[in-house]
Design a protein that fits this description.
The chain has 115 residues and is mostly beta strands. Helices cover 0% and strands 53% of the residues. The strands form two sheets. Strands 2, 4, 5, 6, 9, 10 and 11 form a seven-stranded mixed beta sheet that branches. Strands 1-3-8-7 form a four-stranded antiparallel beta sheet, with no helix packed on it. The radius of gyration is 13 Å and the shape is globular. The chain starts with a strand and ends with a strand. The model has no long low-confidence stretch (mean pLDDT 97).
Length: 115
């Protein structure tokens, strides 16, 4: 059974930090690129390649967010610094294998940035 379980969300003041985690199981983690998206339209926030050596970021989060992965722990992370109110959203973890067009989504974790 495939599972992607996000955690680490919460309420934080502007300028604060959070670290999101997405623990996965049920598929071969290091075969999949991993992505963090947010909001109803699943806006791309950050993505990381299978080996962890390639990353991309939305312009709105460059320099503030860092995506990383630990293939030994089947986990992807999103370190978020200098958070802004416009970062408020539900954040989703996604695993994708373009060669098979297979995609798995987590249930999301709420991030709220407010004073």
């Amino acid at each position: 059974q495939v599972q992607l379980v996000e955690s680490g969300g919460g309420l934080v003041q502007p300028g604060g930090s959070l670290r999101l985690s997405c623990v996965t199981s049920g598929f071969t983690f290091n075969w999949y690129a991993m992505t963090w998206s947010r909001g109803k339209e699943r806006e791309l926030v950050a993505a990381i390649g299978r080996a962890g050596d390639t990353t991309i970021y939305a312009d709105s989060v460059k320099g503030r967010f860092t995506i990383s992965r630990d293939n030994a722990k089947n986990t992807v992370y999103l370190e978020m610094n200098n958070l802004k109110p416009e970062d408020t959203a539900v954040y989703y973890c996604k695993a994708s294998d373009p060669s098979t067009r297979t995609t798995y989504w987590g249930q999301g974790t709420q991030v709220t940035v407010s004073s």
